[in-house]
DNA sequence: CGGATCGAC
DNA sequence: CTATGTCGATCCG
């Protein structure tokens, strides 16, 4: 019974490309090599840390995804490079790559300084940790990770079956969110811009996303998942963790009838369209597997959990529906399928039901913990499943040659870093544990150690509360302050809606900026009391933006993206609490306001009659979310052993939230709007005209980006003042924030701000208890790094 | 706390 | 020409 864990092997060497693609250049770039075992990291030894220059590893294709084995990376990367060279994006990636390289250099330096006795001492400590971890190893749970195949693409193909055989991707020329497996053969994958994908695969069909549909199908799938684990944990629209332990127990008492499901009659009216020839061999292979698994065999086998170990695909998979012709004929009507009582059979059943219900396929991994289940679900990815048996031996066997990159939470950079210190596989992770202990921060090391032992969370729990809300937008380069401020305002409006809809409040507002050179900056401000209104958030965001614009001068701040995020969200209790205090204060404040009088404010602020602050605490109890379920009240004393194993996923990336899926991968806007504003950087003009008196050496000419007038100023500050005036004629952002005491003990130093010159906090009435301001004063230097290039 | 980075989908 | 959006975690100063 033991022997092999795997099943559902996946066509290792597909060559379904022949008659499909016209041009010879369109032939998927793949190399021979039929290896597709769990994976094998190059045997240690050789460090390839030092990389040849002109080799921006971060630009290379990630083949770390199902359906992308055996590609001709060289050929693909060459195309990618040619398409990218010289772009601002590329330049920035190059910069980041260098930073990573320096980081590696430091680590290597630290490594070389390690003394033998240090390492030996570390070894002792680490081995104690290992012992402790080993002591708490729990192999008693049966964890399942299920993940829909090429989810968005699959949904799109439902309505356009003719796309099944063609390379297609979801997204637009700017960005793709996923691709089908045909396209993956060309190197086309999620996160790749469409225009590059087109170079890799000229016949690629790009389909715009439709998130409502994805949500709809996701919901349907979840209805099934729920039947196997009420507490299943969705990680995104298309995947989830489930604890099958209880279900398997219950399953042994279920009658055959309860484990029998009917195969829907319909299914793919199209089946195979024109070029139906395809590969007969491949088809028959699959058909064979299918028959072996489904119906008859299993049906008679009763519940023998051994028989069901037969490898093979569940169903011919809708993508191969054509080949099923023979069978369909025979049985035509509703074929029934009996599933066994083992976990694998249960999972197979679950996948079968999903496919019957939605015509979408899913893949799954079964293992004793989340980390392993996640990896396993990718093993036989397109429409398959994989089991890692619950014995220490099997786990270690699986882990042994597994490239660390396969582990969720270890990405491109960490892979590179580890590789530089001689660690590529999980065994090497274990073998080098003492060194890693010395080189990495405790949390990271802990994570590594657990991975190296094949350990992971055995708890599948509901998401905790959301920790931040944000919205951001990419637009063509814009640099005119009025444009930037308008975008900022729109973003805040959008954010305010989200915040209100979810009844949230947060203490930190962050403005995110991405320059036209792809450099990202975050600027945040914290408050003692949570904020949630458009006005409060906008005020803060606008201030931060203004500061950045100032810091850039005399250059314009040329951006390609802006975003706003509210974090440090308050718990419900805190919101309630604050609401009480707030209402008192706002009452007090209101009366005071009348006398103070507030400037008309040109802006179109949604004149809330209520005091700006509280205006968003509604949160109807309804909520579309299924967010009920208890929250683990006790928990304090740690049921687990190590520090905190918390959520499902391993240490890192307890990704949650299901709306992550909905990136903005070019929706409707037929093309990037971008607009005008060529984001050209004027430069402060160097001709020292020095016409006027003012022989100050400082006398320089600046071009005001607002009024577009260039003239000499005595100082940069004077110029800044001019722009300020020019910018917001009556700005007076003094904004009387409301008084909010709150039990904060740290006195809130109100930093001077707004219109007035700056320096000298004296003026500016913006006292308000907001703005925590840790006594730090950041000095934005006018670093005039990059200029606009080309023309 | 603030900011940068990484990772995932 | 053209390189996403949303969220969580970690690390460092
Ligand atoms: N980088 C991304 N940007 C935006 N959306 C993404 C990105 N990656 C994935 N998505 C969306 C689209 C995917 O269909 C969906 C699920 O992701 P994921 O499961 O990783 O891939 P996939 O389901 O498309 O293919 P498969 O699981 O078969 O490898 O999330
Ligand atoms: Mg998927
Ligand atoms: Mg997924
Ligand atoms: Mg990984």
TrEMBL record:
<feature type="compositionally biased region" description="Basic residues">
    <location>
        <begin position="768"/>
        <end position="779"/>
    </location>
</feature>
<feature type="region of interest" description="Disordered">
    <location>
        <begin position="1"/>
        <end position="55"/>
    </location>
</feature>
<feature type="compositionally biased region" description="Polar residues">
    <location>
        <begin position="32"/>
        <end position="46"/>
    </location>
</feature>
<feature type="compositionally biased region" description="Low complexity">
    <location>
        <begin position="634"/>
        <end position="644"/>
    </location>
</feature>
<dbReference type="GO" id="GO:0005634">
    <property type="term" value="C:nucleus"/>
</dbReference>
<dbReference type="InterPro" id="IPR017961">
    <property type="entry name" value="DNA_pol_Y-fam_little_finger"/>
</dbReference>
<dbReference type="InterPro" id="IPR036775">
    <property type="entry name" value="DNA_pol_Y-fam_lit_finger_sf"/>
</dbReference>
<keyword id="KW-0548">Nucleotidyltransferase</keyword>
<feature type="compositionally biased region" description="Polar residues">
    <location>
        <begin position="744"/>
        <end position="754"/>
    </location>
</feature>
<dbReference type="InterPro" id="IPR001126">
    <property type="entry name" value="UmuC"/>
</dbReference>
<keyword id="KW-0479">Metal-binding</keyword>
<feature type="region of interest" description="Disordered">
    <location>
        <begin position="257"/>
        <end position="290"/>
    </location>
</feature>
<keyword id="KW-0239">DNA-directed DNA polymerase</keyword>
<dbReference type="Pfam" id="PF11799">
    <property type="entry name" value="IMS_C"/>
</dbReference>
<feature type="region of interest" description="Disordered">
    <location>
        <begin position="739"/>
        <end position="783"/>
    </location>
</feature>
<dbReference type="GO" id="GO:0006281">
    <property type="term" value="P:DNA repair"/>
</dbReference>
<protein>
    <recommendedName>
        <fullName>DNA polymerase kappa</fullName>
        <ecNumber>2.7.7.7</ecNumber>
    </recommendedName>
</protein>
<comment type="similarity">
    <text>Belongs to the DNA polymerase type-Y family.</text>
</comment>
<feature type="compositionally biased region" description="Acidic residues">
    <location>
        <begin position="1"/>
        <end position="11"/>
    </location>
</feature>
<dbReference type="GO" id="GO:0003684">
    <property type="term" value="F:damaged DNA binding"/>
</dbReference>
<keyword id="KW-0235">DNA replication</keyword>
<dbReference type="InterPro" id="IPR050116">
    <property type="entry name" value="DNA_polymerase-Y"/>
</dbReference>
<keyword id="KW-0808">Transferase</keyword>
<dbReference type="InterPro" id="IPR024728">
    <property type="entry name" value="PolY_HhH_motif"/>
</dbReference>
<keyword id="KW-0862">Zinc</keyword>
<keyword id="KW-0234">DNA repair</keyword>
<dbReference type="InterPro" id="IPR022880">
    <property type="entry name" value="DNApol_IV"/>
</dbReference>
<feature type="compositionally biased region" description="Basic and acidic residues">
    <location>
        <begin position="272"/>
        <end position="288"/>
    </location>
</feature>
<dbReference type="InterPro" id="IPR043128">
    <property type="entry name" value="Rev_trsase/Diguanyl_cyclase"/>
</dbReference>
<dbReference type="InterPro" id="IPR006642">
    <property type="entry name" value="Rad18_UBZ4"/>
</dbReference>
<dbReference type="GO" id="GO:0042276">
    <property type="term" value="P:error-prone translesion synthesis"/>
</dbReference>
<feature type="compositionally biased region" description="Basic and acidic residues">
    <location>
        <begin position="615"/>
        <end position="633"/>
    </location>
</feature>
<dbReference type="GO" id="GO:0006260">
    <property type="term" value="P:DNA replication"/>
</dbReference>
<dbReference type="Pfam" id="PF11798">
    <property type="entry name" value="IMS_HHH"/>
</dbReference>
<feature type="domain" description="UmuC">
    <location>
        <begin position="143"/>
        <end position="411"/>
    </location>
</feature>
<feature type="compositionally biased region" description="Acidic residues">
    <location>
        <begin position="661"/>
        <end position="670"/>
    </location>
</feature>
<keyword id="KW-0460">Magnesium</keyword>
<dbReference type="GO" id="GO:0008270">
    <property type="term" value="F:zinc ion binding"/>
</dbReference>
<dbReference type="Pfam" id="PF00817">
    <property type="entry name" value="IMS"/>
</dbReference>
<feature type="region of interest" description="Disordered">
    <location>
        <begin position="592"/>
        <end position="697"/>
    </location>
</feature>
<keyword id="KW-0863">Zinc-finger</keyword>
<dbReference type="GO" id="GO:0003887">
    <property type="term" value="F:DNA-directed DNA polymerase activity"/>
</dbReference>
């Amino acid at each position: 019974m033991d022997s092999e864990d795997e099943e559902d092997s996946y066509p290792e060497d597909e060559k379904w490309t022949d008659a499909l693609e016209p041009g010879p250049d369109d032939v998927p770039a793949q190399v021979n090599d039929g290896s597709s075992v769990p994976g094998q990291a190059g045997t240690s030894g050789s460090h390839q840390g030092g990389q040849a220059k002109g080799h921006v590893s971060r630009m290379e294709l990630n083949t770390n995804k199902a359906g992308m084995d055996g590609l001709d990376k060289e050929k693909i990367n060459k195309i990618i490079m040619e398409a990218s060279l010289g772009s601002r994006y590329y330049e920035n990636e190059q910069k980041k790559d260098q930073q990573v390289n320096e980081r590696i250099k430091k680590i290597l330096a630290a490594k070389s300084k390690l003394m033998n006795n240090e390492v030996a001492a570390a070894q002792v400590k680490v081995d104690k940790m290992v012992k402790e971890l080993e002591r708490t190893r729990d192999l008693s749970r049966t964890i399942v990770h299920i993940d829909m195949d090429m989810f968005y693409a699959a949904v799109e193909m439902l309505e356009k079956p003719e796309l099944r055989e063609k390379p297609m991707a979801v997204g637009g020329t700017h960005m793709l969110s996923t691709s089908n497996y045909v396209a993956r053969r060309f190197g086309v994958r999620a996160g790749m811009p469409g225009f590059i994908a087109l170079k890799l695969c000229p016949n690629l069909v790009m389909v715009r996303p439709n998130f409502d549909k994805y949500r709809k199908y996701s919901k349907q799938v979840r209805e099934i998942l729920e039947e196997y684990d009420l507490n299943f944990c969705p990680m995104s629209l298309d995947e989830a963790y489930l604890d099958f332990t209880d279900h398997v127990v219950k399953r042994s008492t279920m009658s055959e009838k309860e484990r029998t499901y009917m195969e829907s009659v319909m299914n793919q009216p199209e089946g195979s369209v024109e070029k139906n020839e395809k590969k007969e061999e491949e088809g028959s292979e699959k058909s064979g597997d299918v028959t072996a698994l489904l119906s008859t065999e299993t049906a008679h086998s009763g519940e023998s959990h051994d028989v069901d170990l037969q490898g093979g695909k569940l169903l011919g998979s809708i993508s191969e529906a054509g080949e099923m012709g023979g069978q369909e004929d025979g049985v035509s009507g509703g074929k029934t399928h009996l599933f066994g009582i083992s976990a694998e059979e249960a999972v197979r059943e679950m996948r079968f039901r999903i496919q019957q219900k939605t015509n979408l396929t899913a893949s799954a991994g079964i293992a004793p913990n989340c980390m392993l289940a996640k990896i396993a679900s990718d093993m036989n990815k397109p429409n398959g499943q994989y089991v890692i048996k619950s014995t220490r031996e099997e786990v270690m066997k699986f882990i042994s040659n597994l490239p660390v990159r396969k582990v969720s939470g270890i990405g491109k950079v960490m892979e590179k870093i580890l590789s530089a210190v001689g660690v590529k596989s999980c065994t090497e992770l274990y073998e080098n544990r003492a060194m890693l202990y010395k080189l990495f921060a405790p949390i990271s090391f802990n994570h590594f150690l657990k991975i190296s032992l094949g350990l992971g969370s055995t708890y599948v729990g509901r998401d905790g509360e959301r920790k931040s809300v944000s919205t951001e937008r990419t637009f063509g380069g814009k640099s005119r302050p009025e444009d930037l401020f308008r975008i900022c305002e729109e973003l805040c409006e959008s954010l305010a809606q989200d915040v209100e809809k979810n009844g949230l409040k947060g203490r930190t507002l962050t403005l995110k900026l991405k320059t036209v050179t792809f450099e990202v900056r975050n600027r945040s401000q914290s408050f003692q009391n949570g904020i949630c209104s458009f006005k409060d958030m906008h005020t803060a965001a606008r201030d931060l933006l203004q500061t950045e614009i100032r810091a850039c001068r005399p250059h314009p701040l040329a951006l390609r993206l802006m975003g706003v995020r509210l974090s440090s969200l308050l718990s419900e209790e805190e919101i309630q609490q604050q609401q009480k205090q707030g209402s008192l204060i706002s009452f007090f404040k209101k009366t005071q306001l009348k006398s103070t009088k507030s400037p008309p404010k040109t802006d179109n602020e949604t004149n809330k009659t209520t005091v700006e602050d509280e205006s968003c605490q509604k949160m109807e109890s309804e909520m579309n979310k299924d967010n009920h379920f208890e929250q683990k009240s006790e928990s304090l004393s740690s049921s687990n052993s190590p520090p905190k194993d918390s959520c499902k996923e391993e240490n890192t990336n307890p990704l949650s939230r299901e709306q992550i899926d909905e990136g903005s991968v070019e929706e409707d806007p037929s093309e990037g709007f971008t607009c005008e504003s060529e984001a050209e950087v004027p430069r402060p003009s160097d001709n020292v005209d020095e016409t006027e008196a003012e022989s100050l050496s400082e006398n320089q000419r600046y071009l005001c980006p607002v009024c577009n007038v260039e003239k000499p100023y005595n100082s940069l500050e004077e110029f800044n003042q001019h722009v300020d005036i020019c910018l917001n004629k009556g700005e007076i952002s003094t904004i009387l924030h409301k008084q909010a005491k709150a039990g904060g003990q740290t006195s809130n130093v109100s930093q001077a701000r707004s219109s007035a010159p700056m320096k000298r906090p004296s003026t500016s009435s913006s006292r308000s208890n907001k703005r925590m301001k840790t006594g730090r004063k950041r000095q934005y230097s006018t670093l005039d790094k990059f200029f606009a290039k080309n023309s």
